[in-house]
């Protein structure tokens, strides 16, 4: 079961990358990435883990027994000396592994380029000089090799290889980048505790959740519609591949809806090239939907 960590502010978060992928591919739960990328922490154009879920998404996953809403007591306090020691040990291990990989890659490059290295040493011992002269094409140079002073020079390839490999030095550990954790690797299971989840707790929240669940059960992907002034954006497929079809706005059936509001919503749908869907609760507690669309005046 997927573990959703709920913050003190009530925000459901996913820290595990495999859980994020599973939610998106198998359960059509998109959420919103809110973390920074480990290699580029000083930009905000591309986000990384953790994944923040809408309360509707967390409630849906909980009701379908896909996820468990929890918190960790240890996340609310400073790490102990044992955890710090374990972290330092892990960083040391990661640095050693990366240095070993870098050394192996450098040795592979030298071995693959051994013919050119040997040829260069032969030219040097034979007194050959490689000069550059401008060719016919602008900006290009052709190689011109002078006449050798000796007929042939024999070089021990194995000795050259040993000399070149001996020059390979490991990089300093300060230059090695250690991946920042997105999921705490040393949390103890006995510190887990279920969160008391109260969403939906009001008629407005209940309407939002019922609308979200309705479209989700129809096979759509949903995200927050805040950037269009709505509650949800509804996609026919993954938002990475499709544009949204609908901007869904949940309204109170007893709240007044002025003509100017309808005009504004109609203009929004035309400008965004999306259908505006008004969702409200009917007299029999069922959810009714009304689509707004501009119609030309004839």
State the main characteristics.
298 residues, alpha+beta, MutS, DNA mismatch repair protein, domain I, Trna Endonuclease, Chain: A, domain 1, five-stranded mixed beta sheet, 21% strand, elongated, tRNA_intron_Endo_cat-like_sf, tRNA-splicing endonuclease subunit Sen34, nucleic acid binding, TSEN34
What does this structure look like?
This protein is an alpha+beta fold. The protein is 35% helix and 21% strand. Strands 3-4-2-1-5-8 form a six-stranded mixed β-sheet. The chain has a five-stranded mixed β-sheet with strand order 9-10-11-12-13, sandwiched between helices. β9 and β10 form a beta hairpin. The longest helix is centred in the first third of the chain and has 32 residues, at 81-112. The model has no long low-confidence stretch (mean pLDDT 87).
Coarse shape: elongated
Structural class assignment: alpha+beta
The top level CATH class name of the largest domain: Alpha Beta
The proportion of residues forming helix, as a percent range, comes to 25-40%
Report strand %. 15-25%
Average pLDDT, rounded to a whole number, is 87
**Rounded radius of gyration (Å):** 32 Å
The helix/strand series, from N terminus to C terminus, equals EEHEEHEHHEEHEHEEEHEE
Number of strands: 13
Précis, in short:
The chain is 35% helix and 21% strand. It contains seven helices and 13 strands.
Q: How do the strands and helices of this protein lay out in sequence?
A:
Elements (H helix, E strand, L loop, with lengths): L1 E5 L5 E3 L2 H11 L4 E4 L12 E5 L2 H9 L3 E6 L8 H32 L1 H12 L4 E5 L6 E5 L11 H10 L25 E3 L8 H15 L3 E4 L7 E4 L10 E5 L8 H14 L2 E7 L5 E6 L6
Parallel strand pairs: 1-5, 11-12
Antiparallel strand pairs: 1-2, 2-4, 3-4, 5-8, 6-7, 9-10, 10-11, 12-13
EC number: 4.6.1.16
Enzyme class: lyase
Keywords: Lyase, tRNA processing
């Amino acid at each position: 079961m997927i573990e959703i960590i709920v913050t003190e502010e009530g925000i459901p978060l996913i820290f595990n990358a495999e859980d994020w992928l599973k939610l998106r591919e198998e359960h059509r739960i998109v959420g919103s990435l809110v973390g920074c990328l480990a290699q580029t922490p000083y930009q905000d154009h591309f986000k990384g883990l953790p994944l923040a879920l809408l309360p509707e998404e967390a409630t849906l996953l909980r009701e379908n027994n896909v996820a468990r809403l929890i918190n960790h007591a240890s996340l609310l306090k400073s790490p102990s000396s044992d955890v710090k020691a374990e972290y330092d040990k892990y960083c040391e291990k990661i640095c050693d592994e990366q240095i070993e990989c870098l050394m192996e890659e450098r040795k592979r490059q030298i071995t693959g380029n051994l013919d050119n290295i040997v040829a260069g040493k032969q030219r040097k011992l034979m007194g050959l000089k490689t000069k550059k002269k401008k060719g016919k094409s602008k900006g290009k140079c052709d190689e011109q090799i002078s006449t050798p002073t000796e007929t042939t020079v024999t070089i021990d390839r194995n000795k050259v290889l040993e000399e070149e490999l001996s020059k390979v030095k490991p990089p300093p550990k300060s230059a090695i980048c250690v991946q920042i954790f997105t999921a705490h690797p040393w949390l103890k299971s006995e510190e887990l505790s279920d969160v008391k989840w109260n969403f939906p707790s009001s008629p407005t929240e209940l309407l939002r959740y019922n609308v979200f669940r309705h479209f989700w059960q129809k096979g759509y992907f949903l995200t927050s519609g805040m950037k269009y002034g709505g509650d949800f954006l509804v996609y026919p497929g993954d938002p990475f591949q499709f544009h949204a079809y609908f901007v869904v706005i949940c309204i109170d059936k007893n709240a007044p809806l002025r003509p100017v509001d309808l005009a504004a919503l109609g203009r929004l749908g035309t400008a965004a090239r999306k259908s505006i869907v008004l969702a409200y609760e009917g007299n029999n507690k069922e959810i009714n939907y009304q689509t707004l669309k501009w119609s030309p005046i004839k």
